[in-house]
Amino acid sequence: MSDGTTYKAPKTNSMAAISTYVVISIGVFIYGLFKIESTLLFKVALLITGVLIFTLLEYIFHRFVYHSGDDYLAEENWQYKVHGVHHVHPTDKDLLAMPIPLAILLSSIFFGIFWLLMGVNTFFFWPGFFIGYAAYLYVHYIVHTHKPPSNALKILWSHHHLHHYVYDDKAYGVSSPLWDVIFGTMPPKGQPIPRQKRRKASKQ
Ligand SMILES: [Zn+2]
Ligand SMILES: [Zn+2]
Predict the structure, then answer these.
(1) Model-level pTM?
(2) Is residue 36 packed enough to be buried (19+ CB in 10 Å), middle (13-18) or exposed (0-12)?
């Protein structure tokens, strides 16, 4: 496909990435279940909080980091390499996830940060955080590789399609529209959802 760009983004199989992260997260959580004293309710609450905090960070990164700068669609900008390339090639299913070694490295850094903040409770919070990332990858994969599903994922499908094809300054949440509601970046209601892939011109 000739679109004038030359940057070759690294390819990653989303399903391989998702399974790896789920297995690691479950392993760490089970370790915590058996090795660390505290109530099951507390452990599960930390797990759920980890998921929630991931969705917040996902929103913040997408809105304020990936879409920062003058033009995230310009190949010379670093924003293009981490995100713009996906906006230019939204249906390339191998460009939906960062390389697995990089994700493991970043998640390890987050593990260290959480450890400094909450000590052994990291064994419950971090798996939630990493499963949140896996869930994000799964939703993103379904949105870009399937027709609109007839289940609950349809809301997320429509939300993310609006971000790609109508408003690149709205609908930043992929795994949930929650933070778009809270921070006022929901797209207007009643907008028809485009089904065709179309690269829209940058408005920035
Ligand atoms: Zn985006
Ligand atoms: Zn996308």
Answers:
(1) 0.89
(2) middle
